Amino acid sequence: MARNMAVIAAEILTILALIVACIFSFGGMKPVGELDTRYLALIDTSNITSTVSQVTYHGLPDSHDFSKHKDVFAIYLYAYCSGTLEDKNSKDDAKRYKINFCSKPGSELFDQYRLWKVWGVDLATPRKAKNEVDKSIGVAAIKKMPRVILVGFNTAMLSLGLTVLAGLSSYFFRHWSLITAAVFSTISSISILTVSSLCQSLYPTLIHRTNDYTISFGSSNGTLTSRYSARQLSILWLVSCLSTLASICLIFGALRSHYGARNPKNGPRRSGEDKTGGLGGLVRRTTDRFFDTVDVSGTYQKLGGDGRDALVRAISIGGESRKNISEVELIEQNENGRDDGTGGSLVHGPHRGLRDEEDTRYEPMRHH
């Protein structure tokens, strides 16, 4: 019961994590027009002006859109979009900016740093560093981390999907499917946790270096403004928490299934077997009249390896069937019997006074 509840809880958590991750990842993939507010970071370059050959440009160039100058750059997980400022007085980003270009998802990530350096924006210098992480991240890391984040996120999404499938199949294939689901879930948890940590390090660092960045370089001047989306980063951490909880549930269920499969107590018992699994003692024959109390015949099982005749069950060995005839409770013996002083052990009960070798209640084991 506990195993099934753990699997059901894990499936629900994994599906929720998958849905939230999908919604998060679709940012920047809708057609050009209004700005998609599911960005990780937004850089406003509308206050930058540059004069070249008596021609004034606003913003900074976009290397993937024929170096056209743009007023805004919105960075998403799979892509980035650029556009122009439409309504500078609007506080709604979707109305404030108009997007006219989005890069190819997965192949063209935000990498304007080298081109922007020509126009006076150098991100190699730590500005307004909040901690040692901000100081340690250089331009090379800023360039490479989005690709690493993308690979980690794809791994997490694939693992989440496989976790759902393996979890559903565990209702039919049980043990190994559940272990497989736990492995995939653990992979997804580690991947999404890595992605969340990298995003939490990269985008605040990028914003600290671009926000209020004043350009005074040749004919270029002005100030950059930027911000990151705490909401989007929180969604990533939410996916990480859901995936981690699902992993814990699946690992618990897999352990329950593993040890339950090895414990015969949890499986179906055949007649003639006691709760501890198998035939726990010696099988011997007895006389027709057992202690002059119960009329039984055939073969009996002497249970328990602790020196006590605790329970005897009548079974048929080599016969047509195996059946429980009755359960007879015997008088307990001490582990080694009672020593009569002559080297033998005295038997307790109705046959007290007899040594073990004189006791005829049990004949030697019959093999077949």
UniProtKB/TrEMBL annotation:
<dbReference type="GO" id="GO:0005886">
    <property type="term" value="C:plasma membrane"/>
</dbReference>
<feature type="transmembrane region" description="Helical">
    <location>
        <begin position="235"/>
        <end position="255"/>
    </location>
</feature>
<feature type="region of interest" description="Disordered">
    <location>
        <begin position="333"/>
        <end position="368"/>
    </location>
</feature>
<dbReference type="InterPro" id="IPR009571">
    <property type="entry name" value="SUR7/Rim9-like_fungi"/>
</dbReference>
<dbReference type="InterPro" id="IPR052413">
    <property type="entry name" value="SUR7_domain"/>
</dbReference>
<keyword id="KW-0812">Transmembrane</keyword>
<feature type="transmembrane region" description="Helical">
    <location>
        <begin position="148"/>
        <end position="172"/>
    </location>
</feature>
<protein>
    <recommendedName>
        <fullName>Actin cortical patch SUR7/pH-response regulator PalI</fullName>
    </recommendedName>
</protein>
<feature type="transmembrane region" description="Helical">
    <location>
        <begin position="6"/>
        <end position="29"/>
    </location>
</feature>
<keyword id="KW-1133">Transmembrane helix</keyword>
<feature type="transmembrane region" description="Helical">
    <location>
        <begin position="178"/>
        <end position="199"/>
    </location>
</feature>
<dbReference type="Pfam" id="PF06687">
    <property type="entry name" value="SUR7"/>
</dbReference>
<keyword id="KW-0472">Membrane</keyword>
<dbReference type="GO" id="GO:0031505">
    <property type="term" value="P:fungal-type cell wall organization"/>
</dbReference>
<dbReference type="GO" id="GO:0051285">
    <property type="term" value="C:cell cortex of cell tip"/>
</dbReference>
